[in-house]
Amino acid sequence: MKRTLAFGGLVATAGLLAAGLAAPAQAANDVASAPLAATGIQAKSIAAFWFSEHMANLINATPYNVETKVVAKHISKGGPAADSKPGVVPAIGDEKKSTSKSKNVNLPKTTGKVFFIGADHRPHWCTATSVQAAYHNLVATAGHCVYDTASNAATMKRWVFIPGYYQGKTPWGIYVGKTAYTHYDYDVYEDGDRDYAFVTVYNGIKFPPNGVAEAWDIVKKAVRTGDWTEVEKYVGFKEVDKATYDAYVKEGQLPAYTHNGKYYVLKFADAGRLGDNVGGQGLAYNQKIGQPVFVFGYPSGKHPDGNQAFTGKTLKWTYGKTFAATAPSVKAEELQGVKSSFTGEGSLGSAWLLKYNNGRRLGYLNGVTIGVSDTDGNDRYDTSVSPYFDGETYGVYSAAKNNWSGSIA
């Protein structure tokens, strides 16, 4: 089964979740994990890659593309079923109740874009969201926005999360992924029912006022001219020992230089923990099908009829009640769907938020978009689908939520 979820035969049914509950799943034994950036210097090098050349890699990244056109050929009565009792994890700050109401939908600060290098060696992005964790350092998205089956690599390269990203702006900093967690069945068998991932991230970092590009420029100029005056006045460098300097040079993306027997590298400012800056959604699992959810994401691309409905530049939302869905072509038998006009590109990883509070901008993450479907055959996408979050989802989340990342600045 391919992770590029073709959904060539997605079947959607409006039935409710079966009332019976199965025995609790032993999800703790079904967790797979993989490192994304094992050291702080690796993480800084990854961040520098995205900020180099005046953020060209960020600006030129394209939405991660999957085949989304669906031809539903038959009806199935299948769908998700809870594997243990329903449960929720409160959102960060959710204990601060609010009675404020708004007629407008207040967009969550928790949602942003994840950027990575795909198997084609080009920069791409998906949607993702910050979720509750012990160290306020966890991101949730679709599994195929983290794990790579198109090549021999285990995970996508140079993986970062940027909440509130807009045309090169990073209002709360850039958060480099440290470790990815998913279900064993997704990592090994690419099971569409388990197409989700939780990623711990390092503290956010911010760069000097004019970024990596200017730092490189002034160092190169000094080497070329022999005049180090401008470099010595630049506040973006700090003196380090030779071992640290050598590590920076080895990574290749990080501005560093040696002069008069001393070693210098580019400074980074610590932007703090992700959850402290933007909050974190709660988590809901084993919930009844048929409840309304808000879906927040960055849809991009065209409908099958060629209509360019979304640009992917700004956060969008849709709203509807979930229903049971299956996708036989990817052996996905426990999906949930929601009526939505979101196109597939860019919206992958979109957050499905149950009981979203418009005043606090918080709710419970109850799904992530893994594909879209044209269920009535009119060449317009009308449905988004997500894995059903059950006890095994909670097991993967639990394996990730208590792991510390720390600062890399």
Provide structural commentary.
With 409 residues, the chain is an alpha+beta fold. It has two domains: 11-92 and 109-207 and 273-401, Thrombin, subunit H, CATH 2.40.10.120; 211-267, no CATH class. The protein contains seven helices and 24 strands. The strands form five sheets. The protein has a six-stranded antiparallel beta barrel with strand order 5-6-7-10-9-8. A hairpin with a 6-residue loop joins strand 6 and strand 7 (138-142). Keywords: Signal. This is Trypsin-like serine protease. Residues 1-27 form the signal peptide. Residues 78-104 are annotated as: Disordered. InterPro entries: Peptidase_S1_PA, Peptidase_S1_PA_chymotrypsin.
CATH architecture of the largest domain: Beta Barrel
What characterizes the major β-sheet?
A: 6 strands, antiparallel, barrel
- In which order are the strands of the major sheet placed? 5-6-7-10-9-8
- Rounded mean pLDDT is 84
CATH topology of the largest domain: Thrombin, subunit H
Q: Please write the CATH class name of the largest domain.
A: Mainly Beta
Helix content estimate: 10-25%
Q: In what range is the share of β-strand residues?
A: 25-35%
Tell me the total number of β-strands.
Answer: 24
Instruction: Pick out the low-confidence regions.
Output: 1-9, 11-28, 67-77, 98-102
Radius of gyration: 22 Å
How far the N terminus sits from the C terminus, by CA atoms, comes to 41 Å
**Count of distinct structural domains:** 2
Please tell me what the overall shape is: elongated
Question: What would you call the structural class?
Answer: alpha+beta
Number of helical segments? 7
InterPro entries: Peptidase_S1_PA (IPR009003), Peptidase_S1_PA_chymotrypsin (IPR043504)
Protein name: Trypsin-like serine protease
Keywords: Signal
